[in-house]
Amino acid sequence: MTDNHHKNLATFIHLSTFSRFIIPFGNFIGPIILWSVNKDKSEFVDKHGKQAINFQISILLYAIIIGTISVPFFIFKLFDGLDVIDFHGFHNFHINVGEPSPLLYIGGGLGALAVIAFIIELALIVKASLMARDGKMYNYPLTINFLK
């Protein structure tokens, strides 16, 4: 049976990911510190700590992948029309406001995807912390288990 202290520790491990709004990389630092100090006290705290850290690493990995995929679209659009041999491309550089660029649609789609993913991430963190408070295990969806 898990006591209230261990439930509270597991809950605070999940909620410590919100420290990223105050401290850079707080979503990694907070859970890692709380987990590493308390992982030997309870298997319940150990499992929740690993889940929280794995989820944050997975989110970072997914963001890097999406960012890496989107960068070529911006680079190709920026350098479209530049002549490599005769480098006078910036003299007639202009933006056509009347005709939307495909970059606008791609960037807007990726931006909307990022906002939706951020809201889902916040909801999953809150759900995991509520499950930890109730003494239940929670496995984040689409999480890669780096720490086993």
Q: First CA to last CA: what distance?
A: 22 Å
Mean pLDDT: 83
Order of helices and strands: HHHH
Output the number of helix runs.
4
Categorize the overall geometry. Answer: elongated
Main β-sheet, in a few words? none
Give start-end ranges of low-pLDDT stretches.
none
Structural class: mainly alpha
**Cα-based radius of gyration, to the nearest Å:** 22 Å
InterPro entries: MamF_MmsF
Pfam families: MamF_MmsF (PF09685)
Protein name: DUF4870 domain-containing protein
Membrane topology: Multi-pass membrane protein
Q: Could you characterize what this model shows?
A:
With 148 residues, this protein is an all-alpha fold. The protein is 63% helix and 0% strand. It is built from four helices and no strands. The longest helix has 36 residues, at 43-78. Its main location: membrane. The chain crosses the membrane at residues 12-38, 59-79, 103-126. Keywords: Membrane, Transmembrane, Transmembrane helix. This is DUF4870 domain-containing protein. It is found in: Membrane.
